[in-house]
Design a protein that fits this description.
Elements: E1 8-18, E2 22-29, E3 32-39, H1 40-46, E4 53-57
Antiparallel strand pairs: 1-2, 1-4, 2-3
Keywords: Molybdenum
Domain Mop: 2-67
Protein name: Transporter
């Protein structure tokens, strides 16, 4: 895979929940869960399944940090 994004988090899919049009895909990245909202079509095209290795790729113009 070649991609310009540098924020690639490799992990294991722990859950895929399809809705009417959008799915939530949860990826375990070193004990932390990252959740992505993608289309059901994307889930099918990528053949996503629980236990499969996948990348969470983060591409954003801003990252915010907060503390209590």
């Amino acid at each position: 895979m070649k991609i310009s994004a540098r924020n690639r988090l490799k992990g294991t899919i722990t859950e895929v929940v399809k809705g009417a049009t959008t799915a939530h895909v949860r990826i375990d990245v070193g004990g932390s869960i990252v959740t992505a909202s993608i289309t059901n079509d994307a889930v099918d095209e990528l053949g996503l399944a629980v236990g499969q290795q996948a990348y969470a790729i983060v591409k954003a113009s801003d990252v915010m940090v907060a503390v209590d």
